[in-house]
Write a structure and sequence with these properties.
Order of helices and strands: EEEHEHEHEHHEHEH
Largest sheet: 8 strands, mixed
Distance between the termini: 27 Å
Radius of gyration: 17 Å
Number of domains: 1
CATH architecture: 3-Layer(aba) Sandwich
GO cellular component, one term: endosome membrane
Protein name: Serine aminopeptidase S33 domain-containing protein
CATH topology: Rossmann fold
GO molecular function, one term: palmitoyl-(protein) hydrolase activity
Number of helices: 7
Length: 233
């Protein structure tokens, strides 16, 4: 496995060291794959704890390399976790990936899961125009997860962090929304509201019976992702 992996650091605008991992799809130059998934993970993990999941993604999604990074204060990344840092982290990590691999924005698929949907939406809405976006177990905003208000997408409170619902309409590329029907942490209504705000949504995947953290075990999960990736080639 190690020969497929490349680990390195990026540095965000505040000087924090951001741990990154890149998993290439093939070692053969003749079979090289350019398209790369930029995966932003959940709140409860780091790239060390999800290495097996990233490797499974590599095996199941044969058309893309896999890239992931840790937020400030997570894993081997320095600094502390904050909304300001998480946005700076994805900017720095993506820029370093593009520099090292000579990638253009349209060769990137931004994939955010749970809290990772926030930096993903930020990046796609305000920084680059990627090839596509995947939002899994996404939420409208931080406070709305625990104290539901304006669930149809009305005005967001000024102190409410990670206001995904206010930014997602600025994404200019095809966007695939995935959510578990039995998600008890982030109600599926969050994903529906985001889906309805998108400019270029594709058919969503409402994973029947899936919860917040086990969608990847759904039998149709990788088939649906691969179908989406094929559609945007």
């Amino acid at each position: 496995i190690a020969k497929y992996l490349e680990c390195f650091y990026a540095f965000n605008r505040y000087g924090n060291r951001i741990a990154c991992i890149y998993i290439r799809q093939s070692l053969k130059r003749s079979e090289s794959v350019r398209q790369t998934i930029v995966y932003s993970h959940t709140n409860a993990e780091d790239i060390g704890t999800i290495l097996s999941h990233l490797w499974k993604m590599k095996r199941k999604i044969r058309t893309c390399n896999i890239f992931a990074y840790d937020y400030s204060g997570y894993g081997m990344s320095s600094g502390s976790a904050s909304e300001r840092n998480i946005y700076a982290d994805i900017e720095a990590a993506t820029a370093e990936l593009m520099r090292r691999k000579s990638l253009a924005p349209n060769e990137l698929i931004l994939f955010g899961e749970s809290i990772g949907s926030a930096p993903t939406i930020h990046m796609a809405a305000t920084r680059i125009d990627p090839r596509a976006v995947i939002l899994q177990s996404s939420f409208m905003s931080g406070i709305r997860i625990y104290f539901p208000y304006n669930l149809t997408g009305g005005q967001t409170l000024p102190y409410d962090p990670f206001a995904n619902i206010d930014r997602c309409s600025s994404i200019k590329c095809a966007t695939f929304v995935i959510h578990g029907s039995e998600d008890m942490l982030v109600d599926i209504g969050h994903a529906i509201a985001i889906y309805e705000r998108l400019k270029h949504p594709v058919q969503p995947f409402w994973a029947n019976g899936a919860s917040h953290m086990n969608i990847h075990k759904h039998p149709d999960y990788y088939d649906r992702i691969n179908h989406f990736l094929t559609s945007i080639r």
